[in-house]
Design goal:
By secondary structure, this protein is mainly alpha-helical. 56% of the residues lie in helices and 12% in strands. The chain is built from 5 helices and 3 strands, in the order H-E-H-H-E-E-H-H. Strands 1-3-2 form a 3-stranded antiparallel β-sheet, with helices on both faces. The longest helix is centred in the last third of the chain and has 26 residues. The protein is globular and about 50 Å long. The mean pLDDT is 87.
Length: 128
């Protein structure tokens, strides 16, 4: 029987988050247990953040707290749809203005408009 290592578990996390929407709400304690640790100390949190980054998983807040009851939004950075919007918002909120900023703002605006149109169309369809 093959033994699952912590690295294997972290490598599987994107698959768990991708189904069905590309994002999940976890609490810090769940992340700590997923890492195989008992408590959320500074080194454990740093290791978790490194594993999330290594597996292309974004998280909000951007600095994980050490309080096990705090909730964290995990999202697949390479997933289309809402996770992509979350990534754009995260990038715009945490990075300095650069040559890509205008394109990112425009892309975010376009995606939000598309979501708005979809929502309005659904509301019209459901209206009596």
């Amino acid at each position: 029987m093959l033994e699952t290592t912590a690295e294997d578990a972290w490598a599987e996390l994107p698959k768990l988050i991708r189904f069905p929407y590309g994002f999940e709400l976890w609490d810090v304690e769940r992340l700590v247990r997923f890492d195989g640790a008992q408590r959320a100390g500074a080194r454990i949190i740093e290791r978790i953040e490194q594993q999330l980054a290594k597996n292309n998983i974004g998280h909000l807040p951007t600095k994980l707290p050490t309080d096990g009851t705090c909730r964290v939004l995990l999202y697949c950075k390479d997933e289309p749809g809402l996770p992509f919007i979350v990534r754009l918002v995260h990038d715009l909120a945490t990075k300095d203005v650069n040559d890509d900023t205008n394109a990112s703002v425009h892309m975010l605006h376009t995606l939000l408009q598309a979501m708005q149109r979809t929502s309005q169309a659904a509301a019209r369809k459901d209206a009596p």
